[in-house]
């Protein structure tokens, strides 16, 4: 970038999905995920005080999800998803610890995400 901020990451992940419910009107799957990210942030030299302006972080992640869809209304399909994620951000360089310390962006974290959607066939002049 023009300001000198850039970076890259190396990632790996694996998952397993198990069909839980299968009927003519519904399907529900359970999925488990695990992975790692190795992040390298490059900052402009002006940010370097006593160390290299390169921040290194390691993120370990695991999640469990339930997703599915149900044909509930005539011509309609409702989808949903629930995902719980937990992980750890390891600050692997002195520069990362210095930059991220003020924001308290290292250590354990957890989050919960959900989504719901509905697709409905429309009749008449709109179809």
UniProtKB/TrEMBL annotation:
Protein name: ShlB/FhaC/HecB family hemolysin secretion/activation protein
Organism: Salmonella enterica (Salmonella choleraesuis)
């Amino acid at each position: 970038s023009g300001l000198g901020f850039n970076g890259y990451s190396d990632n790996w992940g694996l998952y397993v999905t198990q069909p839980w419910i299968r009927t003519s009107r519904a399907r529900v799957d359970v999925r488990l995920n695990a992975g790692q990210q190795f992040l390298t942030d490059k900052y402009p030299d002006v940010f370097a005080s006593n160390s290299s302006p390169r921040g290194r972080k390691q993120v370990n992640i695991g999640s469990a999800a339930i997703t599915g869809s149900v044909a509930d209304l005539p011509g309609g399909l409702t989808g949903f998803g629930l995902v719980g994620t937990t992980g750890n951000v390891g600050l692997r360089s002195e520069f990362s610890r210095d930059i991220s310390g003020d924001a308290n962006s290292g250590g354990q974290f957890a989050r919960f995400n959900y989504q719901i959607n509905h697709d409905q066939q429309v009749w008449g002049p709109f179809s």
